[in-house]
Amino acid sequence: MIERVRAVLVTADDTMLVIRRTKPGIPEYWVLPGGGVEPSDESREAALHREIHEEIAGKADIIRLLHTLETDDERQLFYLARIATWSFDDRTGPEFSAEGRGEYALEEVPLTLEGLDGIDLKPEEIAHVLRGAVGAGSLGAEASL
């Protein structure tokens, strides 16, 4: 089974970092930073730190596992984390130079229901989980810097 790790990266301004994906022929959508767990990763959290460094040249403070999404062949683990610094210009992940992968743009989205409703966050299940947590007021206080 393929394992992937992703992070809800909360900034000091109570925004969330997301990556807007633009591919020819399909509507744009947004994803959370992260990627595949590699055999050389010591843990899932180590994989997440590596991915955050590769994708946004950032260093996150992981708070906790927020949600797990499992299908027949893939498990995605979504973590809640704080982040203070990042640089999309200094990203190093191999996906950014691969042909035909489309465009990647890092954006800050308000961690509010309105902010979440303004983007097509994938997968839909994590968007639903985040809307519930934001609506209950549980994410902002837990992830405040």
Strands, helices and their partners?
Elements: E1 2-10, E2 15-22, E3 29-31, E4 34-36, H1 44-56, E5 60-70, E6 74-83, E7 103-110, H2 113-117, H3 124-136, H4 138-143
Parallel strand pairs: 1-6
Antiparallel strand pairs: 1-2, 1-4, 2-3, 2-7, 5-6
Characterize the structure shown.
This protein is of the alpha+beta class and 145 residues long. The protein has one domain: Nucleoside Triphosphate Pyrophosphohydrolase (Alpha-Beta Complex). Helices cover 26% and strands 36% of the residues. It has helices at 44-56, 113-117, 124-136, 138-143, and strands at residues 2-10, 15-22, 29-31, 34-36, 60-70, 74-83, 103-110. The mean pLDDT is 90.
Summarize the structure.
With about 140 residues, the chain is of the alpha+beta class.
Which features does this protein show?
145 residues; alpha+beta; Nucleoside Triphosphate Pyrophosphohydrolase; 4 helices; 26% helix
Number of strands: 7
Order of helices and strands: EEEEHEEEHHH
What composes the largest sheet?
Answer: 7 strands, mixed
Radius of gyration of CA atoms, rounded to a whole number:
14 Å
Distance between the termini: 35 Å
Tell me the name of the CATH homologous superfamily.
Nucleoside Triphosphate Pyrophosphohydrolase
Query: How much helical structure, as a percent, in the residues?
Result: 25-40%
